[in-house]
Amino acid sequence: MRTGVWLVGARGSVATTGIVGGLALRAGLTGPTGCVTELPDLRGPALPTFADLVFGGHDVATTPLTKRAEALAAAGVLPGRLATALAADLAAVEDDLRPAPTGGSQAERAATITADLTAFRERHRLDRVVVVNVSATEPAPAAHPGHADPDALRAALTGPDEVLPPSSLYAYAAVEAGCPYVDFTPSTGLRLPALAALAAQRGLPYAGHDGKTGETLVKSVLAPMFAMRHLAVRSWSGVNLLGGGDGATLAEPGANAAKVDSKQRVLGETLGYVPQGGTRIDYVEDLGDFKTAWDLITFAGFLGTGMRMEFTWHGCDSALAAPLVLDLARLTAAAHAAGRAGPLPELAFFFKDPIDSPTHSLSEQWQRLVDFTRELHAGGAG
Amino acid sequence: MRTGVWLVGARGSVATTGIVGGLALRAGLTGPTGCVTELPDLRGPALPTFADLVFGGHDVATTPLTKRAEALAAAGVLPGRLATALAADLAAVEDDLRPAPTGGSQAERAATITADLTAFRERHRLDRVVVVNVSATEPAPAAHPGHADPDALRAALTGPDEVLPPSSLYAYAAVEAGCPYVDFTPSTGLRLPALAALAAQRGLPYAGHDGKTGETLVKSVLAPMFAMRHLAVRSWSGVNLLGGGDGATLAEPGANAAKVDSKQRVLGETLGYVPQGGTRIDYVEDLGDFKTAWDLITFAGFLGTGMRMEFTWHGCDSALAAPLVLDLARLTAAAHAAGRAGPLPELAFFFKDPIDSPTHSLSEQWQRLVDFTRELHAGGAG
Amino acid sequence: MRTGVWLVGARGSVATTGIVGGLALRAGLTGPTGCVTELPDLRGPALPTFADLVFGGHDVATTPLTKRAEALAAAGVLPGRLATALAADLAAVEDDLRPAPTGGSQAERAATITADLTAFRERHRLDRVVVVNVSATEPAPAAHPGHADPDALRAALTGPDEVLPPSSLYAYAAVEAGCPYVDFTPSTGLRLPALAALAAQRGLPYAGHDGKTGETLVKSVLAPMFAMRHLAVRSWSGVNLLGGGDGATLAEPGANAAKVDSKQRVLGETLGYVPQGGTRIDYVEDLGDFKTAWDLITFAGFLGTGMRMEFTWHGCDSALAAPLVLDLARLTAAAHAAGRAGPLPELAFFFKDPIDSPTHSLSEQWQRLVDFTRELHAGGAG
Amino acid sequence: MRTGVWLVGARGSVATTGIVGGLALRAGLTGPTGCVTELPDLRGPALPTFADLVFGGHDVATTPLTKRAEALAAAGVLPGRLATALAADLAAVEDDLRPAPTGGSQAERAATITADLTAFRERHRLDRVVVVNVSATEPAPAAHPGHADPDALRAALTGPDEVLPPSSLYAYAAVEAGCPYVDFTPSTGLRLPALAALAAQRGLPYAGHDGKTGETLVKSVLAPMFAMRHLAVRSWSGVNLLGGGDGATLAEPGANAAKVDSKQRVLGETLGYVPQGGTRIDYVEDLGDFKTAWDLITFAGFLGTGMRMEFTWHGCDSALAAPLVLDLARLTAAAHAAGRAGPLPELAFFFKDPIDSPTHSLSEQWQRLVDFTRELHAGGAG
Ligand SMILES: NC(=O)c1ccc[n+]([C@@H]2O[C@H](COP(=O)([O-])OP(=O)(O)OC[C@H]3O[C@@H](n4cnc5c(N)ncnc54)[C@H](O)[C@@H]3O)[C@@H](O)[C@H]2O)c1
Ligand SMILES: NC(=O)c1ccc[n+]([C@@H]2O[C@H](COP(=O)([O-])OP(=O)(O)OC[C@H]3O[C@@H](n4cnc5c(N)ncnc54)[C@H](O)[C@@H]3O)[C@@H](O)[C@H]2O)c1
Ligand SMILES: NC(=O)c1ccc[n+]([C@@H]2O[C@H](COP(=O)([O-])OP(=O)(O)OC[C@H]3O[C@@H](n4cnc5c(N)ncnc54)[C@H](O)[C@@H]3O)[C@@H](O)[C@H]2O)c1
Ligand SMILES: NC(=O)c1ccc[n+]([C@@H]2O[C@H](COP(=O)([O-])OP(=O)(O)OC[C@H]3O[C@@H](n4cnc5c(N)ncnc54)[C@H](O)[C@@H]3O)[C@@H](O)[C@H]2O)c1
Ligand code: NA
Ligand code: NA
Q1: Which of A65, A104, B270, D251 is 20 to 30 A from A357 in CA distance terms?
Q2: pLDDT in tens, C13-24
Q3: For this UniProt entry, which residues form the secretion signal (chains A, B, C, D) (predicted)?
Q4: Pair A198, A332 in one domain
Q5: ipTM at complex level
Q6: Nearest partner of D127 among D375, D342, D333, judged by Cα
């Protein structure tokens, strides 16, 4: 099952780490640590192998992929030996990267993207191409009448308005090209009635939003712990210090708001009440691609006794995110192959703000993911 | 369903907090925070109500219960107003406390305990009495031929040897009195072939070992998180600083070894490999009944990138343990009423070192507990 | 040397804790922990004794002092037994509290304050009264021509403008009443040319600003450590979570800015460069009078190797601040008695943002304080 | 002033980092971060320059220095580019490394060491050679009559006994060769009456013990902070997790005891009382050359209110220690040049367990160091 993985933001940290890692796995230069689809409970015949994956993508930046890989190696995100060993393979992927289209109407730009996707699929004789958005987080867009339904949207796109934010324009173009779509960012992507309707019409599955890699991952096991023990969480306050490209973007207030919002949802929905406190994101350039998050939780036990827990998470965001991008591409490809269309709530395990998921508990999400892949492997998830 | 809760170590911190809390719940002076059997997923008709519970117990100490309650209030474990408001009820429980028997053969001491239990059950017209061991942790006992089967045991007990450690003598006496037994400590208790056989013969359920309240509770959700994400835990090191009566006991090397051992089991069994590092327990008198645990976890992600997490847990052990003692008494009583005999692996959720449990994952244990209580309420867990 | 301690914000947490503690020390009910003027290096004959201190003050609030003391006891800031034992003494202080004047021109309000101070001094036959501002932090005031010199100020005060922020109006009135003045808050207080000139004319000493009690105290020893070891601090980021009255005020952006500003100064001035990162203050009601601060410091050593340190400070702000208020009153009274006028940079040890201090290093400030008190005791600091 | 730096343990992590750094400074390939003798308050004409330093040493290991440098680069202790750029200079130093002598009487081994030192001094026409012990920490030696005075020692060394532990044998040989001696480890070194007498006779200065680089460095500023604020430290508990060669040695109980001991001294001597708690050292291989220390401090403030602080230090021990080794060599050489003999308590700033120092406060030690170097530069410290 030859599968294209088309990355929007293909020269970013997550994308570059994902490409290097995917190529390294194909070449047998590394093991599958961090790839959940390689765990005994999940792996199986329905998923494309690492050797089946072919990478391409769009980006507004033009830095060569090998330069980005070297920079990530210098920053301790990748082993330098991989960047060196895979130089030729990276150059090959470079040929499949395309500039983000500019100028003209949004309809014209969408057509260019669709054409890029179609050409990629044909050039490599791929069974399908999964589009994964790992570009910079956008601010929430203004409402527009064109968001309501496919016809209104199509009409509006030909006009002069910036009807869709970039993530949604890519999603639209992906659907037009018959490609499943995954949003690894908190951006809008496919979350508009017009786009959801279009994806349903075309029989395309999609998943999102916002990869769950650091503080929120920890929250998704600690909050259920407090709930299962009937302990009353009084306050939960967090601060995220991060450098890197993503950090710089998130320092921008619009994007920060979008991110913080999806982070707090976990608590309220798991506990049944919203504790005091909030989450901060601050940009500290020196931290580079490593993020430090600190959380303080105060809680009451039996007879009201006050207690506290704090944790510090010091993680490399790209090293945590990249294998999940590969997992999501494999799973979404398999779902498409199995005939699934519309949202994939079974992939909630991967997201901070999962579409249509009844729970934020990591282990309930895990159980659902295990059941889903079991069905896929048995040939029945469609 | 009038249910006796007989506490071995009835004047200790956990026991006193449990008694005060149980009386306060009966009197409507406090809410059920920390009692998992009061969560919507677990509560129901099969469990005795708080008003159904009657407390008694053994202890080697003689400090009056009201004195212990005042001391715990001064230490911030209990609200002082409860100790005051419940003075009369505590005095009533005082009448049901008995000294730990001394002198004579172990058979004679066991007979005294059995007689105390039987008299308690009759005096209060109780449907059943659950014996819960919350006395000081013992060192592991020396092997003895009497441990092998009921007949050998009975014969040995009449001789001069200290055949059984105290926890096991209480367990033996409980079984002889027809009482279900719960071990909240890491001591041996019912974990001897002779005693397990006896409990089976008498149709008595039992549960244990070692209440899971602090660092290990956190481990039981964090270790599965790393496993589910296919992250490679390289080292997990912890230190537990604690004061209080339990802290003083654990400073003693024999007991320390027993406790540390049950703490490390969670990791190896959850991850499938044992990471580097270990757990320390140190006695720091000034910390009183509050414990501070600090853990450092180093782990590798995709392509081997090294990352780290640390957490500090600052909990009041007695406030965490006491409601679980009430939960265990209620659940074990209900299991007995439903005709269950032998070990209760469905109660693994409560223990660091659960009997016969296939998993240390808190959420899998939770699911099993939910299923079990659902059956009990439906009238079918026997 | 009978000394009045007049507290602006006399019903606040810091003031109430200071009054209770001062009375308890006088009554021999507590020891001098936290009072630096009782250390062997500082104590001596020049300072008024605790028995010499008489308390009074202004506040806009009207809650009785005994109520405030009970609330602080319930919150764990004070031992309840002290609030009880000192009820009569607190009632006596209550008689010396006055409402903050309202209505009329600022000149009229200042006159009322001056009259209150004079009457207090006479009523109790005090040698002098030290005015200490411990009221809520104000936003920075708008510039006004009246701030420039005493004549312009006096003229402006009779008009309709709010020429001075409250802290400065109290400072003005204190100077008019011949009282030394200490500003324990980051508010403007005496820091206006007109007021400094007036204090000099009247021969009055003054000190400030902003008591150094938590995170900044720690910074004032850690930053010199990095400097003395020639380590390059790359980033220093902090978050302060606090409840209580002060926390609520600081949640207000104007006050927050003032406070954060004085917190960051320490780093730049000690290190000679400003590292990346910043300090946040967030209000978390559940934390009450206890504050949790977390700081992350990244630094480079030899050959550029990156390292990190983090600390969590969990302190009771009022318990840290109150004894310093007593220290400052004693020291400023002694300075006044010795004939000192104008700013007292020798008291920099106590402040986040000290007037005229060449250093933020706690130990250099300490050395200066030791020298200063030694001179006072020898009779020569004037 | 051509100065030899003779490192005992010359192939260890600290020594190798020191040599690479010294060569890199000479070549202008790096800056002096971490070298305190390059701070404005300390630098000056009395110290040998980095270009004046010539390295040599003994080791029981034989791994080539370039191999060790590469390994340290791979572990993130050094930048890889330095190991590469300095390959030729490292090979030159290699020629000045000698095996630790074995076999024969201790007198014979000492003679070999003395000969190695003398040859080194002559070969490179050095004004003097400072011997610095950075070899593995030893257990405390058994008492021996030969330790009492020079004559007894000389007599004993010719016999079959292992009279001196290795660190003291090196110290003896250094003194015999007329070399000042610095002990950067907690080993015995020159701390025996016989050796101190000999050094005095020969007019040689010496310094020690045990470089202060991590947790103890932090303690030496935090403990004075608590003392200066009259706060009562109730408990101070710490754990040190470390890998690397030093970590493996310290896992050995004898060495561990020596190290822990020197760590606890700071507290008792600074505070005037010994708080509860202790320090643990645990070996965790995965941490490599980076050490993580965690400390919990509980303390009481005014009126007994309980508070707490915790910190985590994540430092690269070799990167912290190596520049201090260069500092100590430069300062001890200058002291020797100025005619100083006997212990150098002015260098207490550098040590956990300083010889003859009246204080453990880092800033008091700093002041003394500043005064000392000022005198040296002025030509008068002798
Ligand atoms: N790393 C994680 O753990 C994690 C977790 C959840 C979500 N995410 C999200 O993943 C995204 C990528 O993160 P990153 O660290 O790789 O960021 P990055 O800044 O390194 O990469 C983003 C890339 O997107 C490109 N880009 C920006 N606008 C574009 C456009 N209109 N079209 C095409 N490309 C565009 C940029 O040029 C850049 O190369 C972010 O939105 C982040 O919030 C990351
Ligand atoms: N608190 C927790 O979170 C927690 C968690 C798991 C296990 N535990 C276990 O619970 C037990 C009780 O803890 P605690 O904090 O109440 O300790 P504690 O020291 O306050 O109380 C123990 C009591 O047992 C009594 N005792 C000792 N030997 C006895 C004997 N032979 N017969 C009868 N009584 C005896 C003592 O006199 C004391 O009153 C300990 O074994 C502890 O390890 C506690
Ligand atoms: N606690 C500390 O560690 C610390 C350290 C440095 C500075 N401070 C400063 O000390 C001050 C007091 O702190 P707190 O915790 O006691 O706060 P608080 O809110 O408990 O008390 C402030 C008091 O000031 C009174 N007040 C407000 N406006 C007034 C006015 N115009 N005239 C007279 N009274 C007025 C309030 O009614 C209140 O009683 C704050 O400004 C705080 O920033 C405190
Ligand atoms: N790194 C720090 O921050 C720090 C701080 C204080 C003290 N120290 C001390 O510095 C010493 C060196 O630390 P390291 O990390 O470099 O350790 P390391 O194990 O890397 O190096 C020690 C070296 O000493 C050599 N050695 C052992 N016995 C010897 C002998 N008898 N003669 C000659 N050489 C011998 C070993 O072969 C090894 O090369 C240790 O004693 C350590 O306790 C280090
Ligand atoms: Na921490
Ligand atoms: Na911490």
Answers
A1: B270
A2: 999 999 999 999
A3: none
A4: yes
A5: 0.94
A6: D333
